[in-house]
């Protein structure tokens, strides 16, 4: 997720200001790509006349903002971003219970996210973790593309891998939680310490490593594979893979902020965002996650979960506040504190 804070007042000029004023306003914290954020805000404003103010940040930064604003909430809805911090926000009382009438139209994994959170969040898309690589760069260096987690430890990839920092990026936290579930915690952290020798940067944003791969700034990224599809369709020499040992996935989620000033409009946006009409905007914005509404067409370019070896990712456990804090603190202590290779 991009995490540079961009204040986006969406849909300017789409509706007369008197109409927007009559329908009220909505403040949305958006943790998907900026193109999707803007399109969603514009289309919702067109459909309802509600003026949307959209602020785009990664999920790690957004939950930090919700905590900071808990006594005086500024946002109404948190749209997108990995589900683990949404579950944490639910546990910490930062979000509201809401059972949308659209729940019956959603895939079971999206509904489970709602039940796991006590009704405080819902799945809006799913995306698998893997890696992207620059085919031209690897060919130039005569390096074989990685096919397994074990491959990323090879000396061939020294200084050639980027991943995000889990303190600011939900993508990176999903990577850590995936490795812990796949290998066991101690072995996973041994792996991460060895991987550190091949890392050239821990970015703040979860999408930044894939963008660096696309532009030839690094050979390999640990990323959600749908982000690689976006770059490949833009003409960059990017391919993706999911590891042979197995991989995890995100359930991108949506929550209503506790104490939302525009609660009625927040519920309208929430219901709208779960419709096929709203979820089709994802593909228009060149994003290729799997949408949560069963009636939304899945873009042909979207990575196929059936073709991947997926672990049974425990969203409830790894979305708990205590578990998330503990694993990130261990990463800070044992990996993030290591000197640069």
Describe the structure.
By secondary structure, the chain is an alpha/beta fold. It has two domains: 2-126 and 250-303, D-Maltodextrin-Binding Protein, domain 2 (3-Layer(aba) Sandwich); 127-248 and 320-336, Periplasmic binding protein-like II (D-Maltodextrin-Binding Protein, domain 2, 3-Layer(aba) Sandwich), CATH 3.40.190. The protein has helices at 17-23, 34-48, 59-68, 83-91, 108-116, 135-140, 170-183, 185-196, 208-214, 225-233, 263-273, 276-279, 281-284, 315-318, 321-336, and strands at residues 6-9, 25-30, 51-56, 77-79, 122-134, 161-164, 199-203, 220-224, 238-241, 249-256, 290-291. Strands 1, 2, 3, 4, 5, 6, 7, 8, 9, 10 and 11 form an eleven-stranded mixed sheet that branches. Strand 2, helix 2 and strand 3 form a beta-alpha-beta unit. Helix 3 runs parallel beside helix 4. Mean pLDDT is 92; it is low at 1-21.
Which helices and strands, and how do they pair?
Blueprint: E1 6-9, H1 17-23, E2 25-30, H2 34-48, E3 51-56, H3 59-68, E4 77-79, H4 83-91, H5 108-116, E5 122-134, H6 135-140, E6 161-164, H7 170-183, H8 185-196, E7 199-203, H9 208-214, E8 220-224, H10 225-233, E9 238-241, E10 249-256, H11 263-273, H12 276-279, H13 281-284, E11 290-291, H14 315-318, H15 321-336
Parallel strand pairs: 2-3, 2-4, 6-7, 6-8
Antiparallel strand pairs: 1-3, 4-10, 5-8, 5-9, 5-10, 5-11
Quick summary of this structure?
This protein has 341 residues and is an alpha/beta fold. It is 40% helix and 18% strand.
């Amino acid at each position: 997720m991009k995490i540079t804070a961009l204040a986006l007042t969406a849909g300017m000029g789409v509706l007369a200001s008197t109409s927007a004023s009559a329908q009220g306003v909505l403040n949305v914290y958006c943790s998907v790509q900026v193109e999707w954020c803007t399109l969603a805000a514009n289309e919702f404003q067109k459909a309802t006349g509600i003026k949307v103010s959209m602020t785009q940040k990664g999920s790690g930064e957004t939950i930090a903002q919700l905590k900071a604003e808990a006594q005086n909430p500024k946002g109404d809805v948190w749209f997108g971003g990995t589900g683990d911090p949404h579950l944490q926000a639910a546990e910490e009382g930062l979000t509201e219970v809401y059972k949308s009438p659209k729940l019956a139209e959603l895939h079971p994994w999206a509904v489970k996210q709602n039940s796991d959170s006590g009704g405080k969040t819902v799945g809006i898309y799913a995306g698998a973790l893997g890696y992207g690589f620059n085919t031209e760069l690897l060919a130039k260096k005569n390096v074989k593309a990685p096919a397994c987690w074990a491959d990323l430890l090879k000396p061939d990839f020294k200084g050639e891998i980027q991943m995000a920092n889990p303190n600011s990026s939900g993508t990176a936290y999903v990577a850590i939680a995936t490795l812990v579930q796949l290998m066991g915690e101690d072995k996973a952290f041994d792996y991460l310490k060895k991987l550190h020798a091949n890392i050239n940067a821990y970015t703040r944003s979860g999408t930044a490593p894939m963008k660096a791969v696309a532009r030839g700034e690094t050979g390999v990224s640990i990323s959600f594979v749908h982000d690689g599809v976006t770059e490949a369709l833009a003409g960059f020499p990017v391919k993706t893979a999911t590891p042979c040992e197995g991989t995890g996935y995100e359930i991108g989620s949506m929550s209503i902020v506790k104490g939302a000033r525009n609660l009625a409009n927040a519920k309208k946006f929430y219901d709208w965002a779960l419709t096929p009409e709203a979820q089709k905007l994802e593909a228009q914005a060149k994003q290729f996650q799997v949408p949560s509404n069963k009636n939304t067409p899945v873009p042909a370019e979207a990575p196929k979960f059936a073709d991947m070896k997926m672990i049974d990712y425990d969203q409830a456990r790894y979305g708990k506040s205590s578990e998330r804090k503990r694993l990130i603190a261990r990463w800070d202590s044992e990996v993030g504190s290591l000197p640069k290779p």
